[in-house]
Amino acid sequence: MSIQDKVVVITGASSGIGAATAKLLAKKGAKVILGARREARLQELVAEIGENASYQVTDVAKAEDVQALIELAVKKYGRLDVLYNNAGIMPREKLADAKYDNWEKEIQINIMGVLHGIGAALPIMQKQNDGLIITTDSVAGHVVYPESAVYNGTKYAVRAIMEGLRQEERLHGIRSTIVSPGAVGTELNKTIDNPEMQAEIDKVFKNSTSEQRRMNTLDPEDIANAVAYVVAQPKHVAISDMLIRPTAQE
Ligand code: NDP
What we know:
The protein is α/β, with parallel strands linked by helices.
Protein backbone atom coordinates (compact mmCIF):
# COMPACT_ATOMS: atom_id res chain seq x y z
CA MET A 1 0.00 0.00 0.00
CA SER A 2 1.19 3.49 -0.58
CA ILE A 3 0.21 7.07 0.01
CA GLN A 4 0.17 7.81 -3.72
CA ASP A 5 -3.11 9.47 -4.81
CA LYS A 6 -4.76 9.27 -1.37
CA VAL A 7 -7.11 12.21 -0.80
CA VAL A 8 -6.25 13.71 2.58
CA VAL A 9 -7.96 16.61 4.35
CA ILE A 10 -5.85 18.23 7.08
CA THR A 11 -7.11 20.80 9.59
CA GLY A 12 -4.67 23.09 11.39
CA ALA A 13 -2.51 22.89 8.29
CA SER A 14 -1.14 26.45 8.33
CA SER A 15 1.77 25.73 10.70
CA GLY A 16 3.53 23.16 12.86
CA ILE A 17 2.48 19.52 12.70
CA GLY A 18 -0.28 20.07 10.13
CA ALA A 19 1.98 21.92 7.69
CA ALA A 20 4.78 19.36 8.06
CA THR A 21 2.33 16.51 7.47
CA ALA A 22 0.87 18.22 4.41
CA LYS A 23 4.32 18.58 2.87
CA LEU A 24 5.36 15.02 3.61
CA LEU A 25 2.16 13.37 2.40
CA ALA A 26 2.13 15.48 -0.77
CA LYS A 27 5.76 14.54 -1.40
CA LYS A 28 4.66 10.91 -1.20
CA GLY A 29 1.97 11.56 -3.82
CA ALA A 30 -1.13 12.35 -1.74
CA LYS A 31 -3.64 15.01 -2.74
CA VAL A 32 -3.83 17.30 0.28
CA ILE A 33 -6.69 19.68 1.06
CA LEU A 34 -5.66 22.11 3.76
CA GLY A 35 -7.80 24.00 6.27
CA ALA A 36 -6.97 26.69 8.84
CA ARG A 37 -7.84 30.34 9.51
CA ARG A 38 -4.66 32.14 8.31
CA GLU A 39 -5.14 32.37 4.56
CA ALA A 40 -1.70 33.85 3.77
CA ARG A 41 0.01 30.89 5.43
CA LEU A 42 -2.16 28.42 3.54
CA GLN A 43 -1.45 30.19 0.25
CA GLU A 44 2.30 30.02 0.88
CA LEU A 45 2.11 26.33 1.69
CA VAL A 46 0.02 25.48 -1.36
CA ALA A 47 2.46 27.44 -3.55
CA GLU A 48 5.34 25.48 -2.02
CA ILE A 49 3.69 22.06 -2.44
CA GLY A 50 2.31 22.64 -5.92
CA GLU A 51 -0.55 21.00 -7.80
CA ASN A 52 -1.17 18.26 -5.23
CA ALA A 53 -2.37 20.84 -2.68
CA SER A 54 -5.39 23.07 -2.33
CA TYR A 55 -6.80 25.00 0.58
CA GLN A 56 -9.93 26.50 2.02
CA VAL A 57 -10.03 29.00 4.87
CA THR A 58 -11.60 27.03 7.71
CA ASP A 59 -12.53 27.71 11.30
CA VAL A 60 -13.01 24.24 12.79
CA ALA A 61 -15.25 25.73 15.47
CA LYS A 62 -17.83 26.21 12.69
CA ALA A 63 -19.47 23.02 11.45
CA GLU A 64 -20.29 24.61 8.08
CA ASP A 65 -16.61 25.50 7.48
CA VAL A 66 -15.45 21.93 8.10
CA GLN A 67 -18.28 20.59 5.94
CA ALA A 68 -17.19 22.91 3.10
CA LEU A 69 -13.54 21.81 3.45
CA ILE A 70 -14.50 18.16 3.12
CA GLU A 71 -16.88 18.92 0.27
CA LEU A 72 -13.99 20.59 -1.57
CA ALA A 73 -12.04 17.32 -1.40
CA VAL A 74 -14.96 15.27 -2.68
CA LYS A 75 -15.79 17.79 -5.43
CA LYS A 76 -12.20 17.85 -6.60
CA TYR A 77 -11.25 14.19 -6.32
CA GLY A 78 -14.53 12.26 -5.93
CA ARG A 79 -13.67 10.74 -2.55
CA LEU A 80 -12.15 11.22 0.89
CA ASP A 81 -9.53 8.72 2.01
CA VAL A 82 -8.16 10.41 5.13
CA LEU A 83 -9.34 13.14 7.47
CA TYR A 84 -6.61 14.42 9.77
CA ASN A 85 -8.18 16.42 12.62
CA ASN A 86 -5.18 18.36 13.83
CA ALA A 87 -6.23 21.95 14.61
CA GLY A 88 -5.83 22.90 18.25
CA ILE A 89 -5.04 25.64 20.75
CA MET A 90 -3.55 25.55 24.25
CA PRO A 91 -4.29 28.74 26.24
CA ARG A 92 -3.44 27.16 29.65
CA GLU A 93 -4.81 28.77 32.75
CA LYS A 94 -5.60 28.10 36.40
CA LEU A 95 -9.19 27.06 36.99
CA ALA A 96 -9.41 29.82 39.63
CA ASP A 97 -8.75 32.40 36.89
CA ALA A 98 -12.17 31.49 35.47
CA LYS A 99 -11.24 32.44 31.90
CA TYR A 100 -14.58 31.47 30.42
CA ASP A 101 -13.66 32.80 26.97
CA ASN A 102 -10.59 30.58 26.77
CA TRP A 103 -12.50 27.56 28.04
CA GLU A 104 -15.18 28.12 25.44
CA LYS A 105 -12.59 28.43 22.64
CA GLU A 106 -10.68 25.33 23.75
CA ILE A 107 -13.84 23.28 23.81
CA GLN A 108 -15.06 24.68 20.47
CA ILE A 109 -11.74 24.15 18.66
CA ASN A 110 -10.18 21.12 20.36
CA ILE A 111 -13.35 19.06 20.87
CA MET A 112 -16.10 20.42 18.62
CA GLY A 113 -13.55 20.89 15.82
CA VAL A 114 -12.86 17.14 15.90
CA LEU A 115 -16.58 16.32 16.05
CA HIS A 116 -17.29 18.63 13.12
CA GLY A 117 -14.71 16.69 11.13
CA ILE A 118 -16.11 13.31 12.13
CA GLY A 119 -19.69 14.42 11.43
CA ALA A 120 -18.82 15.65 7.95
CA ALA A 121 -16.54 12.75 6.98
CA LEU A 122 -18.53 9.74 8.18
CA PRO A 123 -21.41 9.82 5.67
CA ILE A 124 -18.85 9.89 2.83
CA MET A 125 -16.64 7.20 4.34
CA GLN A 126 -19.61 4.95 5.15
CA LYS A 127 -20.71 5.15 1.52
CA GLN A 128 -17.17 4.29 0.43
CA ASN A 129 -17.00 1.53 3.06
CA ASP A 130 -13.48 2.84 3.56
CA GLY A 131 -11.73 5.73 5.25
CA LEU A 132 -9.28 6.75 7.93
CA ILE A 133 -9.77 9.45 10.56
CA ILE A 134 -6.67 10.54 12.45
CA THR A 135 -6.75 13.03 15.32
CA THR A 136 -3.87 14.79 17.03
CA ASP A 137 -4.34 14.18 20.71
CA SER A 138 -1.43 14.73 23.14
CA VAL A 139 0.50 13.34 26.06
CA ALA A 140 -1.87 15.82 27.76
CA GLY A 141 -4.61 13.32 26.90
CA HIS A 142 -2.85 10.76 29.09
CA VAL A 143 -1.44 12.81 32.00
CA VAL A 144 -2.88 15.94 33.69
CA TYR A 145 -0.56 18.91 34.23
CA PRO A 146 -0.98 21.88 36.59
CA GLU A 147 -2.59 24.97 35.02
CA SER A 148 -3.73 22.88 32.11
CA ALA A 149 -6.94 21.25 33.33
CA VAL A 150 -9.15 22.42 30.49
CA TYR A 151 -6.60 21.67 27.75
CA ASN A 152 -6.09 18.25 29.35
CA GLY A 153 -9.87 17.84 29.50
CA THR A 154 -10.21 18.52 25.78
CA LYS A 155 -7.48 16.03 24.93
CA TYR A 156 -8.94 13.33 27.25
CA ALA A 157 -12.31 13.94 25.61
CA VAL A 158 -10.84 13.50 22.15
CA ARG A 159 -9.35 10.14 23.18
CA ALA A 160 -12.78 8.95 24.31
CA ILE A 161 -14.46 10.22 21.12
CA MET A 162 -11.87 8.54 18.89
CA GLU A 163 -12.17 5.22 20.75
CA GLY A 164 -15.96 5.45 20.39
CA LEU A 165 -15.49 6.12 16.68
CA ARG A 166 -13.30 3.04 16.37
CA GLN A 167 -15.88 0.85 18.08
CA GLU A 168 -18.81 2.17 16.06
CA GLU A 169 -17.19 2.25 12.61
CA ARG A 170 -14.82 -0.73 12.48
CA LEU A 171 -17.39 -2.86 10.65
CA HIS A 172 -17.83 -0.13 8.02
CA GLY A 173 -14.17 -0.46 7.09
CA ILE A 174 -13.43 2.89 8.71
CA ARG A 175 -10.26 3.15 10.77
CA SER A 176 -9.45 5.69 13.47
CA THR A 177 -6.08 6.66 14.86
CA ILE A 178 -5.13 8.78 17.87
CA VAL A 179 -1.68 10.38 17.57
CA SER A 180 -0.42 11.75 20.89
CA PRO A 181 2.73 13.87 20.65
CA GLY A 182 4.86 15.01 23.56
CA ALA A 183 6.56 18.41 23.25
CA VAL A 184 6.94 19.51 19.64
CA GLY A 185 8.66 22.73 18.53
CA THR A 186 5.76 24.59 16.88
CA GLU A 187 3.79 27.80 17.28
CA LEU A 188 1.46 26.22 19.85
CA ASN A 189 3.15 27.98 22.78
CA LYS A 190 2.09 31.29 21.23
CA THR A 191 -1.50 30.31 22.02
CA ILE A 192 -0.67 30.24 25.76
CA ASP A 193 -2.69 33.07 27.33
CA ASN A 194 -0.59 33.32 30.48
CA PRO A 195 2.41 35.72 30.46
CA GLU A 196 4.03 34.14 33.55
CA MET A 197 4.00 30.72 31.96
CA GLN A 198 5.32 32.14 28.68
CA ALA A 199 8.20 33.77 30.58
CA GLU A 200 8.95 30.52 32.41
CA ILE A 201 9.03 28.55 29.14
CA ASP A 202 11.28 31.18 27.52
CA LYS A 203 13.64 31.01 30.53
CA VAL A 204 13.91 27.22 30.41
CA PHE A 205 14.47 27.38 26.65
CA LYS A 206 17.20 30.04 26.91
CA ASN A 207 18.97 28.29 29.79
CA SER A 208 19.11 24.87 28.16
CA THR A 209 21.89 23.71 25.90
CA SER A 210 21.14 22.87 22.31
CA GLU A 211 21.70 19.19 23.16
CA GLN A 212 19.10 19.42 25.99
CA ARG A 213 16.68 21.15 23.65
CA ARG A 214 17.24 18.43 21.06
CA MET A 215 16.42 15.70 23.57
CA ASN A 216 13.41 17.58 24.98
CA THR A 217 11.66 18.61 21.78
CA LEU A 218 10.38 16.80 18.73
CA ASP A 219 10.23 18.42 15.31
CA PRO A 220 6.86 18.66 13.53
CA GLU A 221 8.38 16.36 10.90
CA ASP A 222 8.72 13.61 13.54
CA ILE A 223 4.94 13.59 13.97
CA ALA A 224 4.42 13.88 10.21
CA ASN A 225 6.48 10.69 9.82
CA ALA A 226 4.18 8.90 12.27
CA VAL A 227 1.09 10.09 10.41
CA ALA A 228 2.58 8.99 7.09
CA TYR A 229 3.22 5.55 8.58
CA VAL A 230 -0.43 5.30 9.61
CA VAL A 231 -1.72 6.47 6.21
CA ALA A 232 0.51 3.99 4.37
CA GLN A 233 -0.96 0.91 6.11
CA PRO A 234 -3.17 -1.45 4.13
CA LYS A 235 -6.91 -1.49 4.82
CA HIS A 236 -6.83 -4.45 7.22
CA VAL A 237 -4.29 -2.75 9.53
CA ALA A 238 -5.75 -0.29 12.03
CA ILE A 239 -3.27 1.60 14.18
CA SER A 240 -5.48 2.84 16.99
CA ASP A 241 -3.10 4.73 19.23
CA MET A 242 0.39 6.23 19.01
CA LEU A 243 2.26 8.05 21.81
CA ILE A 244 5.41 9.83 20.64
CA ARG A 245 7.64 11.63 23.14
CA PRO A 246 10.98 13.36 22.76
CA THR A 247 13.50 11.05 24.40
CA ALA A 248 14.10 13.13 27.54
CA GLN A 249 10.47 14.04 28.25
CA GLU A 250 9.08 12.84 31.63
P1 NDP B 1 0.57 25.20 15.78
O1 NDP B 1 0.09 26.34 16.62
O2 NDP B 1 1.77 25.39 14.95
O3 NDP B 1 -0.59 24.67 14.86
C1 NDP B 1 -1.95 24.71 15.25
C2 NDP B 1 -2.79 24.74 13.99
O4 NDP B 1 -4.17 24.75 14.37
C3 NDP B 1 -2.53 25.97 13.16
O5 NDP B 1 -2.48 25.60 11.80
C4 NDP B 1 -3.76 26.84 13.42
O6 NDP B 1 -4.04 27.60 12.26
C5 NDP B 1 -4.82 25.76 13.62
N1 NDP B 1 -5.99 26.26 14.30
C6 NDP B 1 -6.11 26.81 15.52
N2 NDP B 1 -7.38 27.17 15.75
C7 NDP B 1 -8.08 26.85 14.63
C8 NDP B 1 -9.43 26.99 14.23
N3 NDP B 1 -10.36 27.55 15.02
N4 NDP B 1 -9.79 26.54 13.00
C9 NDP B 1 -8.89 25.99 12.18
N5 NDP B 1 -7.59 25.84 12.49
C10 NDP B 1 -7.20 26.26 13.70
O7 NDP B 1 0.78 24.01 16.82
P2 NDP B 1 0.96 22.42 16.63
O8 NDP B 1 1.34 22.08 15.27
O9 NDP B 1 1.81 22.01 17.77
O10 NDP B 1 -0.52 21.92 16.96
C11 NDP B 1 -1.21 20.94 16.22
C12 NDP B 1 -1.92 20.00 17.15
O11 NDP B 1 -0.96 19.30 17.92
C13 NDP B 1 -2.86 20.66 18.16
O12 NDP B 1 -4.05 19.91 18.23
C14 NDP B 1 -2.10 20.54 19.47
O13 NDP B 1 -2.96 20.51 20.58
C15 NDP B 1 -1.38 19.23 19.26
N6 NDP B 1 -0.21 18.98 20.10
C16 NDP B 1 0.90 19.80 20.03
C17 NDP B 1 1.98 19.56 20.85
C18 NDP B 1 3.18 20.45 20.88
O14 NDP B 1 4.01 20.30 21.80
N7 NDP B 1 3.34 21.36 19.93
C19 NDP B 1 1.98 18.41 21.78
C20 NDP B 1 0.81 17.60 21.71
C21 NDP B 1 -0.24 17.88 20.91
P3 NDP B 1 -4.74 29.03 12.19
O15 NDP B 1 -4.26 29.81 13.38
O16 NDP B 1 -4.24 29.56 10.88
O17 NDP B 1 -6.19 28.76 12.19
